[in-house]
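Example record for the data management plan.
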Amino acid sequence: MARDFFNMAQSIKKELIDIRRDLHRHPELGYEEERTSFKIKEFLKKIGIEYMETAGTGVCGIIRGKGNKTIGIRADIDALPLEDHKNCSYSSKVKGKMHACGHDAHTTILLGTAKVLNSVKDELKGTVKLFFEPAEETTGGAKLMVKEGALENPRVDRVIGLHVDENIEVGNIGVKLGVVNAASNPFTIKIKGVGAHGARPHMGVDPIVISSHVILALQQIVSRELPPTDAAVITVGSIHGGTAQNIIPEEVVIAGTMRTMRTEHREYVKERLREITFGVVNSMRGKYEIDIEESYPCLYNDDDVIKDILKAAYKEIGEEHVKMLESPSMGVESFAYFSMERPSAFYYLGCRNESKNIIYPAHGSLFDIDEDCLPIGVSIQCRAAYDFLK
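Corresponding structural encoding:
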């Protein structure tokens, strides 16, 4: 029996909108998603889907069909520390917090996907795991979910996920082959000198001058040591040191981030950051401490999984509504932790509509989505899961 997931999803559109607006009114930050988690569990319990708690406020639902294959579908659930400046009935009721990245839509789509797939559970030739991930905007709940065994018992064969995109017109999706998002390594370098009077610099070791040389030298890693065809970024975002115009301080702290598109480049840039800092600081008689954080890895789309996403999208919305994206994003995405463990695919769901003035960027105080995208996301996720298990 051929399933019409597009119309099945459209039939619950009002329910999807109601869920999304409720979540939008009540945003919660990473690992604080108590109400959101309760609403997810309440929904799953109501329709008879078993679940377990994971990663603190995360939830893993399980729809058990008849077969050995298992697919995971992921949605992130946290909001951002941002004031909602939209003037609408569903704007945030929580001061200083807002769903400004569409995670309320992602959660809604996964709940809708759960409802539709559960209604055809007897036809599923395997298991569907529903990953509701907390803290995507901060430390990445996916990492903890993996550590706690969310990909096991039963073992997940592949994972799919989506993200709304305000640059893609509603009714369309965007698909990127290969690398989708950059890896991130925030860093802090504390450069220590010897304090002195500004009029007698020879009596001290100036950490401000040393810091200047370090910052300039770091820029040469990208411009002169990595292939110009491969994107990478080293940004120093803050410099702190000194208290007065005529005092050479004892230390300066610089902090920034590295973004790379290849795992091998990630390791190379980290090593060169250490080597350059060592060389410059020691040559100028200073001392230093350096800390490089291991943040989100690169997100790679598996060729086979993304081909199946394309097939599912062609069936549900038509090939003319699938846009192939040329460039990866220098932004990070915690779905990468899943993609490092299992063959995965991550794509973008259009939510832009200029006629409705839905044009504002994510992570901005006016961000919104065209809710027509919700059932589209449900139908593609359902099709991809159903066909893979079949």
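Summary line stored alongside the record: The mean pLDDT is 97.
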